[in-house]
Amino acid sequence: MRAALPILLALAFAPSAAAAPVTIRGADPEAYTLDVRYSPRGAGVLTGSERIEFVNRGPAALDRVWLRLWANGPDRCGPRRIRVEIDAPATAGAQRVRCSALEVRLPAPVAAGARSAISLRFRVRGRHRPDRFGRLGATAMLGNVIPVLGVEDNRGLHMEPYAQLGESFYSLAARWDAVLRMPERLQAATTGAVVSDTTSGGERTLRVSSPQARDFGLAVGRLRVFERTEGAVKVRVFASRPGRRVRRSLRFARRALRLLGRRLGPYDSTELDVVVMRRAFVGGGAGMEYPELVFTIAAPEVVSHEVAHQWWYGLVGNNQFREPWLDESFAQYFTDRLHPRLNFCRPSRPYALVARRRRHFQLDSTMRVFERSTPFALGEVVYLAGSCALQRLESDIGRSRMTTLLQLLQSRFRHGVMTQSDVLGAIREVAPNYALRRWLRVAHLRP
């Protein structure tokens, strides 16, 4: 989530094509291995190496793969924030989408069903701007800076542009193993659970691992760590100083994990890192989610929203540029359920929460539409009306069947990719006699 909940509205119209179940037809990552070093000079510098192992899921031999270099996205390649060198025998090819996509030519075609790997080295220069990739005080926020494989599915090769006030991300789950080196005085919150944390000669070496994650995010700075357990999950809150806001954030992160786990199924990791920010991002973004890691202000509802994203996008993925409502509306639905005093939904009229002049926006509009529109459209349509549409669905089919629907989506698409057609198919399966077309009309969704 970029601009969280009703608190901070951000970005919204053009029709999106009818969704279809996803079939991966290109490089499907199996494992990412990182060895990186962080230096605090300037706005921060992250250098290191990466190995990406993948399998060719397509029907034909694969002679190239694409990397998404999202670190070049916020500044639209001016300046270039990440530079990549591809290790032989693979070679670098063309760059596209304002340097946010890099072609990697393979030394030999990879047959359908066969496995291969590429290795690379990279250097990321930080940004002073207070952003998910930027800097808040003395803390470097390094979201979406690690290269990941681009996705090719039955809808084609995805080359969506970076979204400034929303998300463009679409990646596939894989194993991550990372070694991070930094000055001893610094701490890092990361995707993955800590395997070891050692210091020697003024340097800290952190080893982390995740069996399945779509991305790898981190934040590095002079942070203090406060931790408690919630069941089998260690919840770690990182902040520059202790205080009431840290205790509240820890309490609400644990509560969200507990309640979401009861209704949706297991969190699927042993650790969750929560970086508490003293202020919002530039443009009003109150938080941002990464697998097993969230950046958030200390507002309880924002903490809950970001934790909900661990299920909606973290575990059940989607193309956030093409179908942003699939993770944001579901995450906001749970936020509204966990914080009813901030829930202004009238289930009979979900779009009553949208200003009259913006009610022509469809809930299933793409981020391209939202990026070109008023800064309020995304928040009103996808967060508020989208959550309310799901509450209307629950009111119509009953809480028990709604829970069955949510658990079905979580089990069927866990570590996979969900589309709008998948959601509609699951509704038909759970409530076969439900007047689905009427709900699509009030939810402003195309069948």
Structural account:
- The chain is 23% helix and 32% strand.
- Mean pLDDT is 94; it is low at 3-19.
- With 447 residues, it is of the alpha+beta class.
- The strands form five sheets. It has a seven-stranded mixed sheet with strand order 4-7-2-1-13-16-15, with no helix packed on it. The protein has a five-stranded mixed sheet with strand order 18-19-20-22-21, with helices on one face. It has a four-stranded antiparallel sheet with strand order 5-6-3-10, with no helix packed on it.
Features of this protein?
23% helix; 7-stranded mixed beta sheet; 447 residues; single chain; 5-stranded mixed beta sheet; alpha+beta
Spans of at least 5 consecutive residues with low confidence? 3-19
User: What is the rounded Rg?
Assistant: 21 Å
Strand order of the largest sheet: 4-7-2-1-13-16-15
Please identify the structural class as seen in this structure.
alpha+beta
Q: What do the pLDDT scores average to?
A: 94
Fraction of residues in β-strands: 25-35%
Order of helices and strands: EEEEEEEEEEEEEEEEEEEHEEEHHHHHHH
SS elements, strand count: 22
In helices, the fraction of residues equals 10-25%
Number of helices: 8
